[in-house]
Amino acid sequence: MKKTTSRRGFLERTLAIGGGLAAPAIFPAGFLGAQAPSEKILTGHIGLGGMGTGHLNFFRKYAGALCDVDTSHLNRAARIIGRYVPKYRDFRDLLDQKNLDGVLIATPDHWHGVMAVMACEAGKDVYVQKPSSSTIEEGRAMVNAAQRCGRVMQVGSQGRSTRAAYASASYVRNGMIGRVKEVDCWHYENPVGGGKPNGPAPSNLDWNMWLGPMRYMDYNVERVHFNFRWFLEFGGGQIRDRGAHVMSCALFIMNADGQMPSYVEATGKAPDHGIWDCPTKMEIKYVFKDPDWVMYWRQPGNGHPHAPGKVHGFGSKYIGDKGNLVVGGGDGGTHAEKKAIEYKIPEGGNFPYKSPGHEQDFINAVRSRKKPIMTIEAGHAVGTLCILGNISYRLGRGLNWDAKNERVIGDEEANRLIARPNRSPWRV
């Protein structure tokens, strides 16, 4: 049976979405057949909050459709585009638009897996924001869908595409600090707060669709949009927000995308008030084998006041047997020490992949069918690090991780947390 993203056929699929939503906006006949100023590549944009509208700085000329459950976000994005593009409240309608080559997913994390799998099955390439998924099960489903459907999937950890990340990877991979035995990642604390009562959702927001696969709960203004990050059930705190950036750079610099830890242990301090439940303080130890090294996530860490650039609140330090290297930031504001920036790789040395810019790298991959710098396989690995850290914190014990089978060894309670029951009939 032919797979489809239509509403009627969708419930018969492996990945299903339910619930009635507003119809898409009506546009002039023949619009979809018009050639946009995009060299024939058109992108659909799902989720138009801060990051979603930020994408339009680059993708404005490629944009062929917009979608958001919040009409205020949707209308703001339409004004940025400045020309007619279809607008949708339901992302399934966007995926049914046949002339789109790719989609950008910048929704809250709990939607990433569902939407990315559906997009692959609809024949679209995917740029999905970090962290790649909210559960390890969803991340694996995304990897499988991209491979099965032959789709490009870039994860939005843009720090890898900075000049600083390339310089740092060149410096470390060519042995300038010797064998790296420890990577120290640091960040400031999670915020504490959230105390407003539940209430009715505003008329501009489809609250049921915002929740999507999550269990139903009443609307709270301190849960939606940017604030979803401060709930373990939704965003997972700084470890998944900025940690996904910092650790993406760490694995890239260490040339360790194919390596996962054998042991993860986290400790932390829960907030003492408010509804946000991510730990204010947190420390995670990741033990890697063959080669042997250790990575720490320290929140807050000691910091490194001499970190390059303006970003000192988060970053990473690479500790080798012949020296150290400090990298400030980890997202688009990544900075490297002068010695790394000025380093020239010798003939016959190790040349890391050099991205032309994260968004351009995606467009190039759509055209060439080659892998981008932050594949879904790499994104899933980073997401797994973040999720395992939170699982260890929640259970209060270390985890022995079987990376091949993606299971915690001898701990079924932990294994139940690598997936999440979704609201029927929504599932991966």
Mean pLDDT: 90
Low-confidence stretches: 1-38
Q: What is the N-to-C order of secondary-structure elements (H for helix, E for strand)?
A: HEHEHEHEHEHEHEHHHEEEEEEHHHEEH
Tally of DSSP helical segments? 14
CATH architecture of the largest domain: 2-Layer Sandwich
**How much of the sequence is in beta strands?**
15-25%
Rough outline? globular
What kind of sheet is the major sheet? 9 strands, mixed
Structural class: alpha/beta
What's the Cα radius of gyration? 21 Å
Sheet with the most strands: spatial strand order: 13-12-11-7-10-9-8-14-15
Q: What is the level 1 CATH name of the largest domain?
A: Alpha Beta
CATH superfamily of the largest domain: Dihydrodipicolinate Reductase, domain 2
Helix content: 25-40%
* Total of domains: 2
Distance between the termini: 19 Å
Can you tell me the CATH topology of the largest domain? Dihydrodipicolinate Reductase, domain 2
What does this structure look like?
With 428 residues, the protein is an alpha/beta fold. The chain folds into two domains: 7-159, Rossmann fold (3-Layer(aba) Sandwich); 160-194 and 227-353 and 377-412, Dihydrodipicolinate Reductase, domain 2 (2-Layer Sandwich). Helix content is 29%, strand content 16%. It has 14 helices and 15 strands. The chain has helices spanning 7-10, 50-59, 71-81, 91-95, 112-121, 136-149, 163-173, 207-211, 238-241, 243-253, 338-341, 358-368, 376-395, 412-415; strands spanning 43-46, 63-67, 87-88, 102-105, 125-128, 153-155, 180-186, 263-269, 281-288, 293-299, 315-320, 324-328, 335-336, 399-402, 407-408. Strands 13-12-11-7-10-9-8-14-15 form a nine-stranded mixed β-sheet.
